[in-house]
Here is the input.
Amino acid sequence: MKRMMLGILFSGAMLVPAFGTNIKIPSLDLVTKIFGYNGQIVMQTQMYTDILIEGGYKFGGKIVVGFDGIMGFLDNPAYGQALPPLTFKSVSLDVRDLFGAPLSLSYFMGQYDYLCYGNDFPRLFGTADIKSTYRATYTLPGLAYEFDYRGIHRVDGTGIKLELTSPELPFGFGLYVYQDQNFVTVQPLFSAPSTPVVNLNYLFYNTGIFSSDLRFLINTEVFKMEAFAGGTIDTSTWSGYIRFGLLAYLGFGPVDFLFEAGVPQFDFVSGIGIDLLYALFESRLNLGPVTITPTVFMYPGQYLQQDTPDSSNRIDFNMSLSLFNPRRDPFSFGVEGDFVTYNLLSLASGFTYQLKVLPFISFATSGIYWEIKASMKLLDSAAPLTFDDMLASIQGLITVRAEF
Here is the structure.
């Protein structure tokens, strides 16, 4: 495995010297939880880091390696000092300006673009960041590692992309055709107690499953939109899925709105239910020195071609109230209220809820964004909470994000 990864890196590096090589770090996030476990105070850190090796403009190559994992499992905090290894994430070869038009053709392998996430508008059109400020996570069955929801779908596999975009144009489109590697057959690293490090590249994927997605983007000063539709077919059974989604953004200066909605997976057999829907609404109100950010997020029952039963029929209602703007100002502080519900819209019994309060401080220092939160549970439908229960539920959360 190491030899193969080194071979990929070496081969990719050989592609780019003639056109100039750039090494960038598009993202570097550290999220540390501090909590009580078996009478101990333990820390657990998740890391999300990409390192981009990029070639020239017209005939370019891209290689992304990075750290993506967690420092230890919850059932053994002694593993908390383990570090996730540097691993291969994706590689692509790009031919740009086809036929003299702002059209590019890419051959890619690995984890690729997010659809209906909003992170591509700065890359394609040079806009400001419009992504949601709410960090929603999901956990696959039997895993301790939390994954972030980032858009409605992510292209992952081996295939080609045809893309038309230009900062001078108010629109763009992309067509993806690829073998879909979102379907995971075996996850040996997660189940082995002697290997505490979770790494997303040590997965074994199904083969013979192919997908295609078409997305369309509109970019204006006030309104931005992304829509996509796609499908997947399993060539062993000739059964398949469809998916679709929409992102819309309205920015009016002191007030802006972000809306995302779609179905990550629909199979024509299981029937229609509210648990199929992925939906997020967020508004950011900048009222002088006060910033109010309400967010509502409906979790889907399937995400990235995997079942997420722990998130099915879940809706979060989050309200952030801060003095100064965490997105813009070098220092801000405030409080969040997070109301988590299950089965709120379903006809089945079993409605449950939790209410947490999260005071926070955020500040920026030399290109690094810091956020420190403390979470405390105030209400739980499962059982009445005493004051001691509330104190025992306190968790710390430190987020560090580098901006390059």
Remarks:
- The CA atoms of residues 137 and 149 lie 6 Å apart.
- The chain has a mean pLDDT of 83.
- The helical segments are 2-15, 120-125, 188-191, 387-392.
